[in-house]
Amino acid sequence: MFSRALFQSRQSLLQRQQPLKIAVRTLRNFKQEDQPRLRINTVVPNFDAETTKGKINFHDYLGDSWGVFFSHPADFTPVCTTELGAFSKLKPEFDKRGVKLIGLSAEDVESHKKWIKDIEEVNGLNKFEFPIIADVDKEIAFLYDMVDEEGFKQLGKAPVATIRSVFIIDPSKKLRISFTYPPSVGRNTSEVLRVIDALQKADAKGVVTPINWQEGEDVIIPPTVSDADASKKFGDYKTVKPYLRYTKA
């Protein structure tokens, strides 16, 4: 059973952008000041955990891949059952993009394995492929701030459900996008895929994407690129405003 998380101090996150030294907490010390700041472009905290696919080290599991790490309030919950099934069905699309999926629910591995049978049945899956982390002690939920305000007050004191958190992590282990939903609202798998496409396009081409952008649509040249450099790099482009220039992806 997983009982200890590895977490990072605020100073190292800001100064070094590298995984921090191990610090061991007990369940009696869930203090807000001990939580890492999960800002965009910070290296995400590392941890060891038991999962439905065996014990993992989170950073080692991600390796050189992108990652989508998402939490669920509890096992055998209706919305989560539909979500995990939807992500599993889309796993081939995530694979094409070099993205590893991993879920978390604040119950144990045996409960997760029983729940997976329901997920497969409800969603018509032959096999559920990616791991689900066990987080009975809420150590990882604390590390990634996966609880709501009232739940945080009860950490270490009473049963607490996580909220629907999503973390999109790049191959350098940096947080690129995060979403937070209340337990009552299911997530949108298409949006997760869309923003991964946008991030990968931006990284590869040095562009930014407009609202509702989909793969194949025009992109925006960043204002930091001069007109002369834009012509050299992108060729033809359309100027709507001096700061708003569209080009082909």
CATH H-level homologous superfamily name of the largest domain: Glutaredoxin
Give me the Rg, rounded.
20 Å
Query: How many β-strands, per DSSP?
Result: 10
Briefly, what CATH class of the largest domain?
A: Alpha Beta
Q: Which strand order spans the largest sheet, edge to edge or round the barrel?
A: 5-4-3-6-7
Indicate the percent of residues in helices. Answer: 25-40%
Which CATH architecture of the largest domain would you pick? 3-Layer(aba) Sandwich
Would you tell me the overall average pLDDT?
A: 87
Q: What order do the SSEs take from the amino end to the carboxyl end, as H and E? A: HEEHEHHEHEHHEEHEHEE
Low-pLDDT segments: 1-28
Please tell me the total number of domains: 2
Describe it.
By secondary structure, this protein is of the alpha+beta class. It folds into two domains: 10-185, Glutaredoxin, CATH 3.40.30; 206-247, Antioxidant, Horf6, Chain A, domain2 (Antioxidant, Horf6, Chain A, domain 2, 2-Layer Sandwich), CATH 3.30.1020. It contains nine helices and ten strands. The protein has helices spanning 10-15, 58-62, 78-89, 91-96, 109-123, 139-143, 149-154, 189-205, 227-234; strands spanning 48-51, 54-57, 66-72, 99-105, 132-134, 164-169, 175-181, 219-221, 238-241, 244-247. A five-stranded mixed beta sheet has the order 5-4-3-6-7. Strands 8-10-9 form a three-stranded antiparallel beta sheet, with no helix packed on it. Helix 3 crosses helix 5 (109-123).
